[in-house]
Amino acid sequence: MILEALRKRDCAVELHQDSDLVLPLDAERWPGGNVVLMRSMSLTRSRYLAAILEVKGARVVNSARAIATCGDKILTNLALAAHGVPMPWSFAGFEEEACVAEIERRGYPVVTKPAVGSWGRMVARIDGRSAAEGLMQMRFETGSASDHVALVQQYIDKPGYDLRVYVMGRAVGGIRRRSEHWVTNTARGAVPERYEVPESHAKLAERAAAAVGVDIAAVDLLETRGGELLVNEINHCVEFARSIEITRVPLPELIADYAIGVHP
């Protein structure tokens, strides 16, 4: 859909599969287009590809730094904190006992999630000490060394939905994701709804996107039952397959227009 939108705008477009690319690690100029729209779903591939292509002179949307920051929830939270963007409290820990003790100190329930992950996978709510001990043990005794960090976040009692605002320099639209389950990812069964983005929500999403240095993003917002608005996560590769027919936000056209606008 993005390809079609670009071609309708008389753009010369080349499509490259990340699996087919073998790129020398040098500064020789990239022979493809001046603007690279990074749509790889792999964090590892997109981060490295963006970094390589930037050295080769391409303007990559999004940048390697933005992809790396958005793709790691700990780095995202640090960037938001540095810019004073409101978000649920969170902490990172590196040993099971220390993490359980901090959870006990802060109180239940809390949420734990992998620092790197998407689509609501491996996200769990911890309601008591037994669950905390079990989940922290799993976190630190399974996976590779890079997985042995715990990200624990404040549990937000949402009113049955969360909000996603699409930002491309400015907020251009959004969706509401409704679910009876506390995890409100469409990949986990949440139902997308139309959502007219109020100015206050748009400004917060724009602040969040600027904090992580991203061009095109989907900013996930949590609304408390008291009406407080918090930034939860920022997605660097905007997906819309499950929502575009319902929300009618013309994301392929908006992405195409943004890519044309950054062309040198």
From TrEMBL:
* Top-level taxon of the source organism: Bacteria
Q: What's the protein here called?
A: RimK family alpha-L-glutamate ligase
Which GO molecular-function terms appear in the entry? ligase activity
Q: Does the keyword Ligase apply?
A: yes
Q: Which residues form a coiled coil?
A: none
Q: Which organism is it from?
A: Archangium lansingense
The protein's UniProt keywords, in alphabetical order, are: ATP-binding, Ligase, Metal-binding, Nucleotide-binding
Q: Which InterPro entries match?
A: ATP-grasp (IPR011761), ATP-grasp_RimK-type (IPR013651), ATP_grasp_subdomain_1 (IPR013815), LysX/ArgX_preATP_grasp (IPR054562), PreATP-grasp_dom_sf (IPR016185), Rp_bS6_RimK/Lys_biosynth_LsyX (IPR004666)
PANTHER family found in the cross-reference section: BETA-CITRYLGLUTAMATE SYNTHASE B-RELATED (PTHR21621:SF0), RIBOSOMAL PROTEIN S6 MODIFICATION PROTEIN (PTHR21621)
Which part of the chain is the ATP-grasp domain? Answer: 77-260
**One Pfam match:** LysX_preATP_grasp
Q: Does the keyword Methyltransferase apply?
A: no
